[in-house]
Design goal:
With 306 residues, this protein is of the alpha/beta class. It contains 13 helices and nine strands.
């Protein structure tokens, strides 16, 4: 799939059309385990305000496998919004590199980076969305199940950035999405409204509930995430108490379809949001899911910067 030279960004899964989303999945499968020269003599800046294992390594390897040069910049080196304004950093980097990957605490930093950089900007995680994770997640489902439309994904846990992107992506692709979260921790109303607009066109069903059993019963995919994200450490003890009934254990997982798969975006807290019996079980695809970050992002970068 070619972008035909038009400047595009990927700050949200909704920055691509449903057809483009599917094309990215197809491209990711086609590009698996291939080293290319498509982006030879190009460079991509990778700016992180938050540390990460999978996101950093998968992006660096995706850039290298496309023939380009990754330039990693740590929080100390950039200091977005403190040492230097986002607008100034964007205008400098846009003159040095061909694309920017930003992992940030505040989504507004992505909006400002995209406004001023003049090169494609990719959201590698913000407080609003984690679109590259959703792209890799649905790539994994597509590989495992052979389709997306009509499947049911049950998400059990905090309705934060990962859940936001998954709800939107499911609404776009015709996947049914159910989320079970404690009161006060469900997906934002504006995200729900946007996802429902997509679902009305794709035929997807979206359900928000406080009961994990309702979400998981008969599901094709059961998904969870850590109860406490970076930046929420002060809430950790409260969250452990609130989310304790939302642990994905063998009893809860048994309510899903017999061929259901288990997914987790990692890092996982074994024995907290998920038991070892589930995450280490035969139906867990968490490491295939982690690998697919590389392949999905390679397809995305090639499309945006090729």
């Amino acid at each position: 799939m070619a972008n035909k030279g038009k400047l595009r960004h990927f700050l949200s899964v909704t920055d691509v059309t449903p057809a483009e989303f599917q094309s990215l999945l197809d491209d990711a499968l086609r590009l698996k385990d291939k080293w290319l020269t498509a982006l030879k003599n190009k460079a991509v800046a990778i700016l992180f305000e938050k540390p990460s294992l999978r996101t950093r390594v998968s992006f660096e390897m995706a850039v290298r496998q496309l023939g380009a040069n990754p330039i990693y910049l740590s929080p100390q080196e950039v200091g977005l919004g403190s040492r230097e304004s986002v607008a100034d950093a964007a205008r400098v980097l846009g003159r040095y590199v061909d694309g920017i990957v930003l992992r940030t605490f505040a989504h507004k930093n992505l909006d400002e980076m995209a406004k001023y950089a003049g090169v494609p900007v990719i959201n590698a995680l913000s407080d609003y969305e984690h679109p590259c994770q959703a792209l890799a997640d649905l790539l994994t489902v597509y590989e495992q199940k052979g389709k997306l439309k009509g499947l049911t994904l049950a998400y059990v846990g905090d309705g934060f950035n990962v859940a936001n992107s998954l709800m939107l992506a499911c609404g776009m692709t015709g996947m049914n999405f159910r989320i079970a979260s404690p009161k006060g921790y469900t997906v934002r109303k504006d995200v729900q409204a946007k996802a429902r607009r997509f679902a009305a066109k794709s035929g997807a069903e979206l359900v928000c509930t406080n009961d994990p059993k309702v979400a998981v019963k008969g599901a094709d995919i059961v998904y969870t995430d850590a109860w406490t994200s970076m930046g929420q450490e002060s809430e950790a003890e409260v969250r452990r108490r609130v989310f304790a009934p939302y642990q994905v254990n063998e009893k809860l997982f048994s309510l899903a379809k017999r061929d259901a798969i288990f997914m987790h975006c990692l890092p996982a807290h074994h024995g907290e949001e998920v038991t070892d019996g589930v995450i280490e079980g035969k139906r867990s695809v968490v490491f295939e899911q982690a690998e697919n970050r590389l392949h999905a992002q390679k397809a995305l970068i090639a499309w945006l910067m090729g």
